[in-house]
Every structure is written in structure tokens, then in C-alpha cells.
Write a structure and sequence with these properties.
The protein is globular and about 55 Å long. β1, α2 (38-48) and β2 (52-56) form a beta-alpha-beta unit. The protein is built from five helices and five strands; from the N terminus they run αβαβααβαββ. The strands form two sheets. A three-stranded parallel sheet has the order 1-2-3, covered by helices on one side. A two-stranded antiparallel ribbon has the order 4-5. By secondary structure, it is of the alpha/beta class. The longest helix has 20 residues, at 71-90. It has helices spanning 2-5, 38-48, 59-65, 71-90, 103-116; strands spanning 23-27, 52-56, 95-97, 134-136, 161-163.
Length: 167
């Protein structure tokens, strides 16, 4: 994931790709031989400005093994699922968990629809800029024009924060 977003060695990541981009992360969520730790990877995702849709594929095996799993193994499974969710939510997108192979088509169709029907909003902060600092993002949507947010009636996906560029 870090390789695709930030780049490594001669590869410049997704920054050189023209047009709309997204990362489809299909994984169990378990870490094996990463060069960076979880927190560093999460920061790369949050700052990449690229949506990450994750599909967790470890559920079927975890369900079969559940009666035989130790508490540590079960905890590792929950942590793996949480890792995928954190990556997706850090980019303002959704994480999916697939239990059966037949569910993959539905998940891919859902992701394709979200990519097709997304909006991009921009704004300029009114307060002084703090280069390199984390800024929260809050989106309120009024559907019926009554002046009150209707967010509970909607399924909003957006980044919860961004880091003010240093340069």
C-alpha cells in the first residue's frame, strides 16, 4: 500500500497518474514483512489524497477456524479487520468484509458505483493556515432546505481530516 501511494525507489507512486485514481486493497489485513509500521502506513494513506477501498478476505477462514482459535489468534483476526477499516476510513472511504466468494461481485459493483457517483468539494479555511498541522473536516448536508443537517438520512463518506501542506 505504501508502495502504491507514496512510491519507493524509482517508482513515484500514484502522484504521476493522470485522471481519477483509487486503490482497491484486497487483503486479509495481516502484516507480513512490511518496511514501515502501521502508524506510518496510516499516515501515508491519510496524506495521499487517494481513496482506498479495502476488501477483507480473511472472514471465511476465520469462521471455519473460530472454534479452534486461541484468544491471541482471534485478537489478531480482529486487528487485521481493523487495519483494513482504518486504511479505508483514513482516506474517507469504506472497507468491506467478504465471507463468501459470491459476495465479491456485489462489493465490486458497490465500489464501482461509489467511484462513478462521487463529488469533490473544496474550500479555503478562514483561520490562519498552520503548515504541517492536522485540520478536521466536517460535512453537513441539508437535503430538504430547512436549515438543519440531514446527515442521519445519508451515507456520507469523506475524509475526517487533512494535513496542511508544508510547502
Amino acid at each position: 500500500l505504501e508502495f502504491a501511494l507514496a512510491g519507493d525507489m524509482d517508482y513515484a507512486g500514484l502522484s504521476g497518474v493522470q485522471g481519477r485514481t483509487a486503490v482497491l486493497l484486497i487483503s486479509t489485513g495481516r502484516d507480513s514483512l512490511s518496511k514501515i509500521n502501521f502508524d506510518e502506513a496510516r499516515k501515508v494513506v491519510a496524506n495521499a489524497r487517494v481513496p482506498v477501498y479495502s476488501i477483507g478476505i480473511g472472514e471465511a477462514s476465520a469462521l471455519q477456524a473460530d472454534p479452534y482459535m486461541s484468544d491471541i489468534s482471534r485478537l489478531n483476526h480482529y486487528q487485521s479487520r481493523n487495519t483494513l477499516r482504518t486504511f479505508s476510513e483514513s482516506s474517507g472511504r469504506r472497507s468491506y468484509t467478504v465471507r463468501f466468494q459470491a459476495d465479491i461481485d456485489e462489493v465490486l459493483n458497490s465500489i464501482a458505483a461509489m467511484i462513478r457517483f462521487q463529488y469533490t468539494l473544496g474550500y479555503t479555511p478562514l483561520n490562519d493556515r498552520q503548515k504541517g498541522k492536522k485540520r478536521k473536516i466536517k460535512v453537513l448536508v441539508d437535503i430538504d432546505g430547512d436549515g438543519k443537517p440531514d446527515n442521519k438520512r445519508l451515507e456520507l463518506q469523506h475524509r475526517r481530516f487533512y494535513v496542511e501542506p508544508k510547502a
